[in-house]
Queue: 4 jobs
Job 1
Amino acid sequence: MSDLTVSCVQPALQWHQPEANRAELTRLIDEIPIPTDLIVLPEMFSTGFSMDAPAYAETLDGPSVAWMRHIAAQRQAVVTGSLMLQEQDNFYNRLLWVRPDGTMSHYDKRHLFSLAQEQHVFVAGNAPLIEEWKGWRIRPLICYDLRFPVWSRNTPEQPYDLLLYVANWPAVRRTAWSTLLRARAIENLAYTIGVNCVGIDNHGQTYNGDSALLDMKGEYLVEVGNQETCITRTLRRSELEAFRSRFPALHDADPFTILPTPAAL
C-alpha cells in the first residue's frame, strides 16, 4: 500500500460570498507545493455556517460543485468539503467526495447542531460513507459528528484508515475540538484530520482554525493556529500497519448496531 499525501485548507470564510470564498480557496490551493492526493475543505466552505439555505443552497449542477470538479481534475486529487445543497424541496449539509474524473459520492451530516436550529433547516443523513482512494479507506464526517464517538467508530464491518472532519468549529469550544480529535484518533487507531476555518461570521462568532492532523496514537503531526493556510503532509502506511500490529485494540472492541434516526423510521 502506498503513502497518502493530504492537503488541509484553512480559509477565512466570507459570509454568504460563495464566489469570493471559491477564489480564496483557489489561491490557497495554488500554493500547495507538491502533488497531493486529497484536498480537504471546511464545512460549508462556500458560505460559512449559515441556516439561510433557501437563499444560498446550490444544486449539484451549481458553480461550487463545478469548481470542485475543476480543482479535482486540475490537481488530479480528490477534493472534499461540505456545502448547502438542495434536492427537490429538501436542504442538506452535504459533504461531497469529488474524484479527478468528475464522479462523486456524498455524505449528509447525521448530527445536526440543535443549538443553531440546524435540524429545522436541513435533513439529517443516515448512512456513513467510507471511500477507498490510493489504497486507503477514508471516513469523512462533518463538524458536530465529532462529539458522537459511536458514529465515528472503526468497526470490522466498515474499517477505515483515515478519519476526517470538516468543520466550522467556534473558538469558544476549541478545547473540545482538540480533545475530541485526539480521542477519536486514539480509540479508532486511525490517522485523524480536522479542518476548520478562521475569522468572524455575521453573528459575531469567532473561528480560531486549529486545523490538525494526528497519527493513530493521538499524537499531533501538525497543528495550525488562526491564520489562513494550507498544510500538506504525507501519511505513512507502514507506520499505521506497524502500530496496529503491535497494539491490536480494535479486535477487542464491543460489537454494536446503530439504529436509524427517528426521521428515517
Job 2
Amino acid sequence: MRGISGMARLVSVLAGTVILGVAAALVPATASAAVPRFDHIVLVMFENVGFDSIIGSSRAPYFNHLADSGALFTDAHAQTHPSQPNYIALFSGSTQGVTDDSCPHNLGGPNLSTALAATGHSFTGYAESMPTPGYTACTGSNGRYARKHNSWVDFADVPPAANQTFAAFPRDYSRLPTVSFVSPDMCNDIHDCPVSTGDTWLRNNLGGYADWAKANNSLLVVTFDEDEGTRANHIPTIFYGTGINPGRYSQRIDHYSVLRTLEDAYALPPLGESAHAAPITNIWAPTLGGIPLPTGSH
C-alpha cells in the first residue's frame, strides 16, 4: 500500500507538471497581449513640465506613487511646442495645421469622439473652471480656464453635451463614459502653479478613480502636453489600472502612440498619424483563466 501511495503522489506531481507546462506554452511569460478592452478610460493632461521634474521629485509624491505602481514610460515625448497642437494631436491624430495657442479654431474631420460614437461607445471631456457645459469662449471670467487646453470643443461635430465642466465628473465611476479626457485648470495643471499643486489635485480629484479603476476593468492615463520647451520634449506618461504589469518601459512613445492604444482598445479605425504609431501592448499582464501570470523584464 505504501508503494501504491508513493506512485499516486508521483503521478499527481507529473500531471501537475504537465498542466503547468501546457499553461506556460499557451501563454509565454514574455508574450505581449493585445490592448485590453476597458469599461472606462480616463486620460488627464498636465502642462509644461518635463520628465525629470516629476519622476523622482519630492514635490510629486502622488505622480510617483502611480508611476511606481503602474506602467511608467521613460522615453515618452510630446509632438511639438506650444501647448495647443499637442492637445489637438492627441484627440484627432493630427495637429490640424495649428502651430500656436490662438483661439478659436473650428475644425472638421474625424476625431476620437466621433470614432467612439460610430462604434456605440461614448466620449466626454471635462474641463475644470470652464464656466458652463458646452462653453465655447476662449477664456473664463476667473482666468483659470483656457480653451487652448480643451481640444474637443474645437471640433464642430463633437456635441455640446460632450463638453462638460469638471464639476460634472461622476463620483459614481461606473457612470463614466467609455473614454473621458480631463483638463485641470491653469493652476491645477501646473501651467501657472507649482508641481506640488498639480500633484495634490491629482490625488484629491482622481485618486479615488485610480483605486477604483484597478479593481473595475478600467484605466487611468496621466500625461503632459509638452515639457518646459526643450527640443527633446521629454514628458512623463503613466498608465495605471486593471491588468497592468508594473514597471518602467523604455520604448519611445508619443501622443500618437497613446491615441493608437485608446483606439485599439475599442477596435476604432486609427486617426491620422496614429495609423503610423504602434499601440502600447507590452505593459498588459498576460492571464490564464483571469489570473495574471508573471512576465519578464521590460
Job 3
Amino acid sequence: MTHILITAAGSHGDIAPYTGVGARLRAAGHEVALATHDSYAPLVRAAGLEFRQLPADPRTRRADPAEAAGPDRPPAPGGTRALMRQATAFIKELGGGIADAAREDTGLLLLSATTAPLGHHLAEARGIPSLELPLVPGAPTGDFAPVVSGGRSLGRWGNRAAGRLSLRVVDRLYADAAREMRARLGLPPATPRTVRRRAEAAGRPVLYGFSEVLVPRPTDWRTGLDVVGNWWPWHAPDDRLPPVVEDFLAAGPPPVFIGFGSMAGGEGERLSALAAAALRRAKVRGILQSGWAGLTTRHTSADADLLTIGEVPHALLFPRMSAVVHHCGAGTAAAGVRAGVPTVPVPVTADQPFWAARLAALGVATAPIPFKDLSTDHAVARLAHAISQATAAPARRDHATTAAHRLATEDGAGKVLKAVERLAA
C-alpha cells in the first residue's frame, strides 16, 4: 500500500477526472488524498478520497470564472499582461498550499498540468517519486501547434518552435512561485526551466489522460510520454438521473443538451434566451445545464420542451441526448464522444478550439461556432442550423457510435494504476 497525494487545481473539468483515478487506486488498496479547492470537497469525499485543501479557489477568487482556471486556461484574448499577472498570482497562491498538502507518510505525488511545475520541487525536497498526469497534450510536437494557440497548424517546424515557446512562457509564470517554494523547502535555487529540463533528460514518465481516438500520440514525442486514455469522473454505481430529468426524458423525443461548464460567467440571461430561441427554431426539446454561466429557463417564456438542471454526471445524461452543445473542455468533449452522440462545439478559449477541431475532424461534430459569434445578429439562426445538422445527419451519429465503441476499449485509470505500482515497487 502506498500513501498517494493527487494535486489538481482549476475548474470542475480540471478536477473531476482525478476522482476517477483516485477511486481506482483506492480500490487497489492504496491510501489516496486529493488536494484541490474547497468547492470540490464534496466531489472528492463522495469518491471515497481524503480531501486536502488548496488555496486560490476559482469559484470564489475572481469575479470572472473565465479567468479562473489557472495558467493553462486563460480568458479570451485582449488582456495578455493582465492575464500574466492573474496567472502568476494564482500560481504563487497555490505554491504554499501544495507544500502544506503533503504529509510525512506521502509516498507518491500525482500531479495535474497546473500543479506539476510546483509539485516537482516538493518531490525533490521529500525525496519521493512523482508522476505527471496532464489532461491535454503539452509537450512540443511537429504534429500540431500548442493546444492553447487556437488549433491552427504552423507546419512541423513552426509547431515545434511554438511548443517550445509555450513551455518557456509557462516557466516564466511559475518563476516567482518556484523561487519562494524552493526557499521554503530548503532547496538550492533552480529555475523552472532547469527543473523541467532535468526531468526531460531523465526521461521522467508522463501519462496523458486523453484518448488516441481524438489525438493520436505524436510521432516525435520522446519515450516516456504516453497517451493512456481518459480518466472519467467518479460517480456511484447506483447513481440515477433525478426524477425530474427522467420525467422530462419520458415526455418526448431525446432532447439536445446545452451547457458551457465553467465558461461565460454572468451571461446566463442572454445565453438562456439565445439557447431557447435556437432550440425552438430547430424544433427540438432541450436541457440547459446551469453551469457557471447560470443558464436557466427563468429568463425564457414558459416552455414544456425546456428543462434546466444543475450538476448531473455526463456519463448518465449524454447517452440520452440527441446531441450535445458545449464549450469543448477536454472532459466534456470526451464525454460526448463516449456517449456516442453528435456534438455542436462552441469553444470559448484556451484548449477548447483545439478539442472542437478534433471532434469535427473525427466526424462526430458540426463545424465549431466560436463563442464570440453567439453575440452576433445571426447567432440564433447559426446555432439552430448547427443543432439541426447534428440531430438530422445519420452519418454524424454513425461516426459518433463508432468512436464510442473505440473509447469503450480503453482503460486510462488502469494504465495509471500500473504505472503507480511500478513506481511503488
Job 4
Amino acid sequence: MELASLWRRVRHPFGSAHDAVPSRASGGNLHSTQATESLRALLDDPQIPGAIRTGLAAEFARLEAMLGKLERGELHIAVFGRVSVGKSALANALLGEDAFTVGVLHGTTREAGQRRWQQVADSGVHLIDTPGIDELDGEARERLAWDVAGVSDLVVFVVDGDMTQRERDALALLARTERPLLLALNKADRYGEDERERLLERLREHAAGIVRAEDVVAIAAQPAPLKRLRVDVDGVEHAELVEQVPYLDALRTRLTAVVEREGKTLAALNASLFAGRVADQVGTRIADARRELAGTVIRQYCIAKALAVALNPIPVADLLTAGALDAALVMHLGRVYGLPLTKTEAGTLIAVITAQLAALMGAIWGVHLVASALKGLSAGVSTVVTAGAQGALAWYATELVGRAAEKYLVAGKSWGELGPKRVVTEIVESLDRDSILREAREEILKRLRK
C-alpha cells in the first residue's frame, strides 16, 4: 500500500467500535519489515558522500535510533501539555509507579524523559514525558514539539480546563507533525458531570479538524483526596483525607486498542516519514553539490569555447569547433549528474536546444555567423576587431546550452512538463546577457593579451 494512503488511514486510529480498522497484525509486521529495510538501505547507501553524512550527522544518528526502535518492536507515546496540567502525574498513573517528577506549584519536567509502559501485541510501549509548553520560549517550544513528535508514534495532549490560546497554538503545531493525537481533559474530578460534559464539548470545538470528537476524553490522573469523617469508639469525629484511585479507563482503553490494532504500522510510518525527510535532505545536498560542480564545468567550457572561437582565423570553422565543445560539455554534465549521455544523445539534445535558441535569438546567431565570415577578410585585421565580440557571444551561447542541458539532466534526462521551448525561454530570461557578455569580453581580452 502506498505510504501516503496508509498514513491517511491510520493517522486518526482512535475511532469508535463500528468504524475501527480491523486487526492487522500481519500487515503491521510487513510494514515494520519494509520500514526497517528502507532505513537500513538509507543508512548503508554507499552513494552518499562522507561530507553529506557529516553535515547530517544528527539526522543519521536519529535514523540509527529509529532503526533500533523498530527492530526492538517499540512504540513511543508522547505526553504534551501546559505546566502543571498533570502530564507527569498521568505518565506515572499509567506506569503504576512514580517514574516522573511531579511538581505541585510549578512544572518540574525540564527535558523529555522516557520510560517503558507495558507490552501490548508484541510491542514494547514507552511513554515520553515532556516539559510544559509554557516553560519554554516560542522557538524552543516549537523545536521541542518537532523533536519529541519526531520520535513519537502518537501524542496525548493534556489540558485541565478550557484551552488557552497558547494551548490551541501548540495543538495546531503538533497537528503539523502528522502524528495521531488524543486530547485528554485531566483533573476531571474537579467538575460536576454537567460542567465536565460542557468542557468536553468545548474542547471538541477547539480541536475540530485536528482531533476526532471521540478522541477527546476525560481523566483524573491524580484525583484530589476525599475528605471523610470517621467516628472512633468514643464517639469522637475525626476528619481524614482518603486517597482516590486515578481514573484513566477511557484513555487506557483507546491507547491499548490502537497499539493492538495499528501499533507496528504507526511506528513504521513514523520511521518512514522521517527517513523520507532525511533522504530529501540528502538528495538536496547532493543536487547542490552537483549543481556547484556543474557550474564550474560550464564556466570552463565557456572560457574554452570563447577562446577557441576568438582565436580561430578560419571562417566558419570556429563554429564547428564550438559545436564539438558543446557536445563535450553536454556529455561532461551527464557524468556530473550520474546520467551519462552517448554522442548521439548529446547531439540530439544540442540540436533541440540550438533550435529553440535560434528561434528566440536568431539575430544574435546571425551576427555570430557574419563575424565568423569576416575573419577571412583584410588579412586578419577583422579577426582582432571581432574576436572579443564573437568570443563573448560564444561564451553566452555555451552558458545557455549548459544550463538547458543541466535542466534536462536534473529532470532525469527528460524535459518534464515544461518542454524544451519553455525551459530555454526561462533560462534566456533569467540570465543577464549584458553582464555575461561584459564579463566574457573582459576575460577574453585579458587572456588574449597574455
